[in-house]
Structure formats: structure tokens, C-alpha cells
Amino acid sequence: MKYLVVKGWLGFGDRLETLIMCVKFAMDHNLTIHVDWTDSIWSHSGETFYTYFDLINIPSIKSIDDIPADASVYPPFWKDNLKQPFTEDLISKGQSVILTDFLTEKNNYTEDVVVYSCIGRRTMFPDSKFFANVFRVIDQRILLNINDRIRNNNLRQSIGVHIRGTDRVRSYRNRELSIQHLAVSAVMNGSLSGKPMIAVGDDSESLSIWKRFYPDIKVLSKLSMENTNKKGNHNASKEELAVSKDEMNVDLLIDFFTLSVCERIMTTYRDSRFAREARHLHPYVQRILGNE
Q1: Domain ends where: 55, 87, 117?
Q2: What's the domain count of the chain?
Q3: pLDDT at 13
């Protein structure tokens, strides 16, 4: 095997978890990696992974055209479909399309190309330093806004609150209880003792509940709050968005790295991969942003 192609799907946290595992696998097996985030969740007008990011210090290609046409591929479905973005319909095809096993150093595929999709299971790593050494934000819109937020909001000493809701809301009562518990936890972490606190998120209704407890919290999210969609902002179609997917992606990524810079990170939903990956990358976020 010579190449690893990473197909995107789901939200940014899921993508990032998958990418971290795939980068580790590519490093362990000396593979050339290509990240294909041209699916409809991430891309409405040609946006890709490489619009916002780059991979350095690791063999990588930015175009599937650089993979030889006669290369053998696993799973075999992708043999003549390497350029096809991942879709909802492909999920039903199961293992003929989707690798569901964890990628570990023990895997020994003989094909020239292995395609891994964000639907598969993922290995979690206690330390993401290896990933921070290869993953870089390159979009100047993101970098300029993050550095501006760092200068003006004391992020490095702040509690960052991730107001997650939309498609995660199963019960309004449970949502209110979750936010109440988080508000108590914020007190335990110093929110009433002068500790600065900022909020980012995608759910204006949940933010309204949070403001019952902290009416003066500084909310840094803009487009995500203005375009709250109950099925999840990332799942909104082109027609449902008042702005472009590119603008939404930039807004989301500014919020993600804002959260990553914060000293402490809290979220309204414990299983939020967005918040979890922000915590994992926190020790190395300045490297990822090119500030060290």
C-alpha cells in the first residue's frame, strides 16, 4: 500500500478524530495521505480540506489525480470512484464501501490505496503532539480572526464554554438540566471569582438558557448563532443557509480554535467531539496556528 485517502463526513469533531487516527496510521506505515473533504456537508462550492488546512512533515498529495490510475484499492468499491465524495447513500452499503475497523499499526493492507471514511471507528490518542507537528491552519481569515480574539479577549486565561445544541437536543427538559449542571460546574471553575469566560456555539436557544445564569457572558460566535438549524448547522443545505458554506466553515473554525486556546473548556454536551478535540489540541494550538 502506498496511499491513504481520508473521506469526510459528519461534523468537524468527527472529521478531526478520524484525521488524527489516519495521520498516525500514515506515519506508522510511511504512506502518502490525501484528505478528501469534498462531501456535501463540508463543501457547497468547491471548498476542500486544503482550503483551510495543510499537512506538513508528512508525505501528502492535494489531488487524487496524483494517484496512479492502475492502483489497486480497498475497499474495492472505490477502485473507479476515488474522486467520488462520500454521501449518505453509501452508508447503507456497509463494509463494501466503509472500513469500520480501527486503523492501527497492526493493519497490513496489501492494496496500493486504502480509503477510510469518517463513519468508521476511531482510535483515541492520549497525546496529539504528533498530529500538531503536521497539521496547520493556512487560511488567513481564520488566523487573523483568532489572533485578534487572543489579543482582545484574554483567551489563554479564560473558561471557554461551548454552547452545543441543535441536532443533539432530544428533550428540552434534559437540555435545561444539562445547562444548569454546566452553570454549576462553571462556578466550581471560578466563573464567579473573576475568571474570564467566553462562549462559542451553534444554538441560539441554548444560549438564551445559559444567559439566565450568566447574562453578561461574552459571546464570540456570530454566523453560527445567526444560522441556528435544529438539524445541526453542518447539516444545513445550501438553500437553508443565509450565507455561503465557506463563510460558515470559516466561522466554525474560528470558534473551534478560539475554544482550543482557552485555559479551560466546558460544553453543554459531554460527548461533543468538537469540544473534546479542542481540549486535546489545546497544548499545541499555537503550533497549529503557526504562532511558534
Answers
A1: 117
A2: 2
A3: 93
